[in-house]
Amino acid sequence: MLLADACRAGFGAVRRSKRLLACCALSTGLASLPLAVYVARQVDAQGARRPDATEVARYLDPDFFADVRSTTPSFDADAIALVVVSLVLAFALRPLLWGGYAGISATKKRLTFAKFVREGGNTYWKFLRISAVCALLVGAVSVGLKPLLDTVERFAQTEPTEVSATNARTVAQVIVFLAMCLPAMIADYARVGVRMRRRPGVLAEFGRSAMFVFQHPFRTSGFYLIGLALEVGVVAVFVVLIRMADGAYVATSLVVLVLGQLLVALREATRLFHLAGAWTIREAEERPAPVRPVHPESDGDDLLDKPLPWHVG
Amino acid sequence: MRSAADARLRVTILLVSRTSLRRLVCAAALAAGVFVGSSGDAPLVAQPAWRTQADRVPARYTIDATLRSIDGEDSPRQIQGRETIVFTNYGHEPVESLWFHLYANAWRDEESAFVREMKREGRPVPDPMTWGGTDIQQLTVVNSTNGRQPVMEFVPCEGAPGDRTVMRAKLPQPVEKGASVVLRVDFTTKLPRPIARMGATRDFVMAAQWYPKLGQRIDAGTGTGVELPWARNVHDGWYCHHYHAGPEFAADFADYDVTLHTPDTWTVGATGIPIPPSKDAPRDEIPGTRTVTWQAKSVVDFAWTAGLRYVERVRTIRPDDLSAGDAVANQVSGDRSLLGAGDEDTALPPVEVHLLLQPEHLDQEERHFEAARVALSLFGTWLGPYPYARLTIVDPAHDAPVGGMEYPMLVTAGTSAGTPLDARRPEHVVVHEIGHQWFMNLLASNEAEEAWLDEGLNSWFTARAMHRAWGPNTQLTTILGNHFSTEPPISFPGLTAGWPDALDLPGWVRPPDLEIFRLWRDAPLLLSTTAWRYRPDQDPTLPARRSYLRSAGTDELVKTGWEYMTSDSYRGNAYPRGILLMETIARHVRDRFDRPDDRDGERRVLRAFREYARQFRFGHPTTADLLRVLRRETDLVELPQLFEALAKTTGLLDFSVEPVRVVEEHATADAPARTWSEILVRRRGEVVVPVTIRCGVHGAKEPVLLRWDAAERWKRFAVEGRVTTVMVDPQQFFPQDARLSDNVWTDRRSARPGVKWGTHALVWLEHALASWGRFF
Fold it and tell me: Which chain A residues contact residue B475 at CB under 8 A?
């Protein structure tokens, strides 16, 4: 029942925040813009005057991109620098979004954009620390599980068939991926905890959230997997849509752009979905237990009227 | 070792006596004016039939080999062998020593030249490595008259003194001209963990380069006037190179009679044809072992494989059966009529093809056989028939990196489960490796010294065959066993994999390479765009161009294999540069001689290669031989200059055109109004070749063609009218051009490429940030 409640809360939060989610996707788009502009300019410099410009736009032409790279030898380095800048921007922006999502989760009302930003600002520094801790833990988990991957790789190499070897590798990688999701899941509960209790200590809250997750492994991980499955499903659907829409013309590129924005907005929606659901789960568990009514004493003889055990006389 | 002065001697491959003989015959015929190749018409002399075996083979091997386990190990990886070699001296000088390749010793330890060179280039040895090697227990001269035996010593390799891949046996008495020596060699070869063409794992064995093998006898002083560019690597009259990480092999023709004892549950494939055991043959002494004797005539090597999991399929392929009526049959039919050769000359005998497949690839059986049909049909039509009755295609075990290798009558392919059809991966490998039956075995050039004669020519014919049979294929990206017919246009190896190096992170804190995360991050772009290796409207040699440009500008085309700067440079020169060079030559010939109603240029190209293949069949042609035949048969006078410019330099070829300036002059009292265009063409690369510039002029029906010898770095042309398009090298004679985009210019601007790929970059990065965002 609790999972259903969490799903209901998650979907409710998403339904109430469609415009806000679009804004969040737009912020990701803005963070990505430098690379897009750079690539567009470089490609335009090489491709705009080619007689086969439409074909260059239609097909992924490795020769053309080789030309782009050889004309600007620093193309990859420049692009990497721009991606890193975007990544830093996104990392800095993320706590603001998480704060807004936590604010949405805390109330059943529709949040205005100003309120959303205010919510994000209120918890920004705490959530930034949570994000940093989470990223560090994810990195530590991935590094820590390297021996598992190595072991599986050695095992796969001794497998007689290619299929069984691939399956072994896939299972190992899925395990590592899910293990990397564990700190992310705990971080969501920590965000809920920080927003719910307004407690000052981020690390302590992280620890408490970890305890919470370990105490309720099925409902927390089950709900996280639901959110993850939704996100994977969204990506799968949009991969098909983007493939159908893709073409050689400016109009088709704009369609792809819109679809890409929609994809990111829906992925953000799955994040909000999980946070709102996590709020429900944690709230339900940490709600003070109702005071049990004292059972009235039986209607039998009044105790006071009863003879005391030692009153034998 | 020979002195440098000796090395400058004019030497000739003598043991390919037929080759030498043919050179003399050809020279005499030319002198007598018998050949009329320069006219491009059919030669007046009757063409000799295609040979089916070498005239003389200097070595005959009889080997008895048993595959068994090493004590304490479960799977067999040790070959216990007894070898009898009959070496005949067909040279002019006595042979005082015999030189042997012991290739398997490359995997004896880390001191070999191969492993050192691998490490120098950062290519890791598999971890954990199971080392191997060849030990010779005994080497004796059976027909020794003085009772003395050879003295053996390893020949040190420059740069790797611990290398043991070449051994010299000083004979107790010289082998005189025309005489033979009979040797008996008892040896043990331990196969390593599969690496670079050979090895054993669990229930799979690929036994290549597994037995002590004679080097190639080169005799000096025969005075036929042919100088080998690599004479300095001939020692004691032998060409016997150490086993290096880059180049492949050089060998002479030999006959083999090999008896293999393998586990009776294993399937075996080998060079040669299995000989049915006679009724009187003794039964195997070792229980659980099966014995088969394989015979091969006139081949340059003997390789075999055995495996428990192989599924064997057999089909007889009739390469000249044109009843299929498909693209290949039409091509064969068209080329036959173009060549105008008689049925006898173009007949292709049936070949029994044995396919040893891994069970998980059974659904690709048809693809392998179809590729074999394509290769045997087209290569046979272009270069003469495959001379043997049997061919084995091997699909190696998944953890054995021994695929994509050629041996006489046996090739290793390579595929993986679920490989999409449009990638044509197993097809390409099979066609290429079968092509080596010509460019390696029948035309046994020295691949260690002139690798492009094998790999370059074969790759060119492979590209032709692939294009004619199937058209363009797609790029392939594989993640966790899933194949995608694309690769991301914007990939950041530095961001995703290179940053730990940039930060010099110690190994233990480096994050693992998670393919699943890559799929998570790149999914939309990986799945949204199909990436063809070349567009349907494009030149099929473009993939070769890309490959060449990755390592261009460092080495000449023809060079000793281990002296290239890197193995990438070796590969770039051996494979794609040869393709580009051949394509340049062929396009020049077609441009010169093709007519709207007569494909004389294409005919000359085909005839030239058929003549080359005919003349040097079962021989050892050199680059000079090829150029001489091409020059004679195609009548392309600028061929030497093209070869000089495109093969003997390390420079790049790169032309560009600057934006056109249109000048409008108003009418004056002296002159009427005039519009003209100024075109600036630049030669940015070092390679100087003449080019054509085609200019489209507004309102003109025909384009203006300009010729430029490119002697200077740039040239300004003035063209009457408003030029709307400019194209340097419009016939695409030179696919080597380092940048094709700046070879063209139009007055119309299109925003489509910029918008399209900028949008894709945006969507990729947004998606990537969202993917990373799950973890912070």
Answer: 62
